[in-house]
Amino acid sequence: MTGVTTSKRRRQRSDRWVPITVAITLAAAAAIATKTPSVALSNPDDLVVRQPSPPLALARPHIAYQVGGHGDARVSYITGSGELAVATVTLPWSLDIEMSSPMRPASVTATTLGGGALTCRLEVDGAEQDARESEPGAGVVLCSVVSA
User: Which pTM value belongs to this model?
Assistant: First the structure.
């Protein structure tokens, strides 16, 4: 019987430690929770619900083609819809167009029929993007921009 009694006593002692351990843990958690400073917002405006910004609208770029020189020339250029147009014109020549959508290439090429010197200039929204001069006698000039 002594073996059974000793075993019972050990179990009773170990059973007492469980509630004591739980009580100490809860007391420590409560002490930490009450001693820890609370978190405050530094700016109450951060909680204000605002209307979302309107989506970013990409404007259609305005393109200005210019070709300078003397006499007649054959001009090739990209239209506002992105197609290639070819025309025989008297120099100096210029054309203003609006692209049908943003991020399109723009280009103008001129070839003189008499072989004289040429200049070209390409502007996007009023800002020069490319300007070139041909060598005398070469009679060919190209101005372009990858994305207007």
Answer: 0.61
